[in-house]
């Protein structure tokens, strides 16, 4: 139950963050959260997710 709620909130953050903030910053924040949750709170996963999210957000903002 709690895992489902957590994943729903992470997904909502990933979808809404680029709309609320700048695309690059919002994408990096959402990607970092998703990377952190997907890799069981690994620092490498967090940084990797933030980098990927920032790149995606930057491309969407063009």
UniProtKB/TrEMBL annotation:
It comes from the Bacteria. GO terms for cellular component: outer membrane. PROSITE patterns: PROKAR_LIPOPROTEIN (PS51257). Keywords: Lipoprotein, Signal. InterPro entries: Gly_zipper_2TM_dom (IPR008816). Residues 1-29 form the signal peptide. This is Osmotically inducible lipoprotein OsmB.
